[in-house]
Specification:
Oligomer: single chain
Number of helices: 7
Shape: rod-shaped
Number of strands: 2
Distance between the termini: 87 Å
Length: 209
Amino acid sequence: LSIRGIQDEDPPDPQIMRLDNMLLAEGVSGPEKVWVFRHDQYLPFRKRKPSCPSSAPTSSPPSSPPSPPQACSEFTNHVMNLLREQSRTRPISPKEIERMVGIIHRKFSSIQMQLKQSTCEAVMILRSRFLDARRKRRNFNKQATEVLNEYFYSHLSNPYPSEEAKEELAKKCAITVSQVRGHIGVKLGSHKCHRRDLNPGLQWEKPTS
């Protein structure tokens, strides 16, 4: 008895193929990666070529578990060996073995699909958060821009806001203190360049107080 013929008869699942294509397009899976078991899930781990002598520790895990297809094959072989041993004491037909192998393959296929689907969902969530963070860093709403500009032009004599002023502006604009600092810095740099063009030799010193 052999499971090779049974495996060849099963056509590839189209949903798993779509998930594989998505993971490959996102750079999550590929021939240079293996599946590492972390936090109760199989996660992709990129193989790295050691850049140090072989005696030094590398960044790869000490031992990696088998991939889902390999684990399915090993578990199927184990079950078939048990069935062969039991066939010595009770009759077991090839149909029964084939049915058991089919059940194992369907179970592993379902687990593999769930893991890949969870990975795809995590990739999409991370991408969405990354794009949202980039939008927040780049663009302020109209009200926040007006508040920041109003503060800047009303404090031209001392354009460097104190920490308390930065925190107050951040609360008014619903942004972070670092975003306030960055906006004021860009605005101040642009204003200084404009003043320097109109009045050559003019210098704007930062107050020491």
